[in-house]
Write a structure and sequence with these properties.
Mean pLDDT: 89
Largest sheet: 4 strands, antiparallel
InterPro entries: cNMP-bd_dom, cNMP-bd_dom_sf, Env_Response_Regulators, RmlC-like_jellyroll
CATH superfamily: Jelly Rolls
CATH topology: Jelly Rolls
Shape: globular
GO molecular function: DNA-binding transcription factor activity
CATH architecture: Sandwich
Protein name: Regulator
Organism: Streptomyces shenzhenensis
Strand content: 25-35%
Oligomer: single chain
Number of strands: 8
Domain Cyclic nucleotide-binding: 9-111
Order of helices and strands: HHEEEEEEEEHH
Number of domains: 1
Structural class: alpha+beta
Length: 154
């Protein structure tokens, strides 16, 4: 299996760990509009986008789901699989046809448990993604619902 050609996972993980993870992946595809997962459901797998785009969204009572972030090639879709209780905090939908690497969360957690160096690399990677997503969610929700927005000029 070839490694992804884009930055996310490539920059975050040492080559040995990246290749080990990719050996456990399977290639999948989703048509535009396909729902990868819903907020609140069990996080039993995750993906790294190869091609296409995925919107992460959050349910907002009385309103349409708010798009928190749009992900593209090389980016991680799904972070809740790593941390108990392993339930999704956001939803995800394909905004275009998507090709991705799919990983079994239980198998990857087991690999991380058995190899502490791999576990540390994966935790650093996913932790960095989580910090970025939290910042994105805060900014997006303030832009949508606060009287003066987030004040961000991004």
């Amino acid at each position: 299996m070839n490694a992804p050609t884009t930055a996310g996972m490539l920059q975050a993980l040492p080559a040995e760990h990246r290749h080990r993870l990719l050996r456990s992946a399977r290639e999948v595809s989703f048509p535009q509009g396909a729902r990868l997962f819903e907020e609140g459901y069990r996080a039993d797998r995750f993906w790294v986008v190869r091609t296409g785009g995925v919107d992460l969204d959050m349910r907002v009572p009385g309103r349409r789901a708010a798009v928190i972030e749009t992900l593209g090639p090389g980016e991680l879709v799904g972070c809740s699989w790593l941390f108990a209780p392993h339930y999704r905090q956001l939803g995800a939908v394909a905004t275009s046809p998507v090709r991705a690497y799919e990983f079994d969360a239980t198998a990857v957690r087991s690999m991380c448990h058995d190899d502490p160096a791999l576990g540390a690399s994966v935790a650093q990677w996913v932790g960095g993604v989580l910090v970025h997503r939290l910042r994105s969610a805060r900014t997006r929700l303030l832009d949508l619902y606060a009287p003066y927005g987030s004040g961000s000029t991004l």
